[in-house]
Amino acid sequence: MMRNSFGLPQNLGDSLVLRWATPADTEALASFNVHIHSDDLDDPEIWLARWTEDLMRGDHPTTRASDFTVVVDENAGGKIVSSLNLISQSWAYDGIPFGVGRPELVGTDPDYRRRGLVRAQMTAVHAKSAARGELVQAITGIPWYYRLFGYGMALDLGGGRDFLWDRPGNDSKVEEELYQIRPATEADWSILQTLYEAHNRGALISRQRDEETWRYELTIPNPISVYARHFYLVELIDSPHQPVAYVEYKQFGNSYFVRELGVRPDHSWRTVGLYLTRYFKKLADVLYEKEEKRLRGVTFGLGIGHPIYEALGRQLEEQRRPYAWYLRVPDLPAFLRHIAPILEKRLAESVLTGYSGTCRVNLYQQQFTLVFAQGKLQEVGSYEPKSVDDGDLQFPDTTFLSMLFGRNSWEELNAVHADCFPRTAEAAVLCSILFPKKPSWVVGLG
Fold it and tell me: Is the separation of the CB atoms in 120 and 12 below 8 Å?
């Protein structure tokens, strides 16, 4: 029994009870998630069942059966009619770790919708996430819906560029390959960690991995799950056992889809990248011979700013626009205090080095101050606005999150939100320094 059950079990009326799941619910929840989340029930997405089982089995680094909520109908034999879960993880903001709670597998039986069942469950998992000290909640999901629970689309999700084999100039044959590739093993986790840092080079937000997480991702998830990772190490043929790069990929549709890629600092991203395009072409040729399934190329699904794009340049197709993570930051002042070292570093390296002053940020329904003295953030306080638009920076709804997490500059936000702007020239300069646009390609823990 958990010491704090966060108000559960809870009677929701009409014979519906909200409670935390137990391992005994695994089979029913796996079946429920396949039924609710499959796009076509004539072709059910069985991986959803395997993912549910992975999360509930007890060997996941952060998630157990008790991190799922279920709403059951006691007048229907206790059947599950709604559910979601919480996957805790650690991300970093320009290197500063912060806790994230990720609600996922949010679904309700169509016959039970529009009764507030998801809202009741969100309240419970938000409370659990807060109790774990997680400053942010993040979710991937359908358009608009999660705005109802305080989330805003504030961080790039997906996006990428394609390398097509039949494009002129993309037939990069070589007389002799420098590299070979092999599956990574559990023993390789520390090497992968170093190469993963190269994958995240230039990203504002990234997920942190520790030894337990690496060992889990390398060995345990069901291989058919979308959240199973498939890691490979690239080595010099003349120097085996000295990996120079890693790649994580999966075949999706008519291409090989690269989800992670990192190259050692003393090796060429371009040389490794072109080797991988040839490696995938050989795999595709074998697949075509066996299954008569022709693949067209490699998708580097690495957001909008990954180093491989610069390395392969115009050999890649145009950027595929990303979707977005929904983010929720229930206590913005606390989060800003947490990342104060980054804000101070940005000031120190800017035209406002040594800045002293108070910036009043008005989110219309919430206000706070950023108080600086000699370039140091002394306080994130509050103020009482004298009018609805009283402040140095104005950000409606959740637009501030898009700037805070680097997805948009204030100029971009102002272009589509006329009530989003800095009121003074100094505030505009300060805003651009503290919250620059910077890409991210987060690999979420599932």
Answer: yes
Cis peptide before 9 (omega within 30 of 0): yes
The reply to whether 161-320 shares the fold of 10-139 is: yes
Q: Please report how many Cα atoms fall inside a 13 Å half-sphere around the Cα of residue 250, on the Cβ side.
A: 12
pLDDT exceeds 60 at position 38 = yes
Distance from chain centroid for Cα 307: 18
- Strand partners of residue 138: 327
Contact present, 403 and 332 (Cβ < 8 Å): no
CATH superfamily of 10-139: Gcn5-related N-acetyltransferase (GNAT) (3.40.630.30)
The Cβ-side half-sphere exposure at 182, using a 13 Å CA radius, reads 12
Query: Which strand (E) or helix (H) includes residue 26?
Result: helix 26-37
Phi then psi for residue 324, to 5 deg, are -150, 145
Q: How do residues 180-215 score in pLDDT, each as one tens digit? A: 999 999 999 999 999 999 999 999 999 999 999 999
What's the topology of domain 161-320?
A: Aminopeptidase (3.40.630)
CB 281 within 8 A of CB 322: no
Using alpha carbons, select from 201, 202, 296, 278 the residue that is nearest to residue 234: 278
Eight-state DSSP code of residue 321:
P
- Which phi-psi region, left, alpha or beta, contains residue 406 (left: φ > 0; alpha: ψ -120 to 50)? left
Q: Which CATH architecture has domain 331-434?
A: 2-Layer Sandwich (3.30)
Q: What residue segments make up the domains of the chain, in order of their start? A: 10-139, 161-320, 331-434
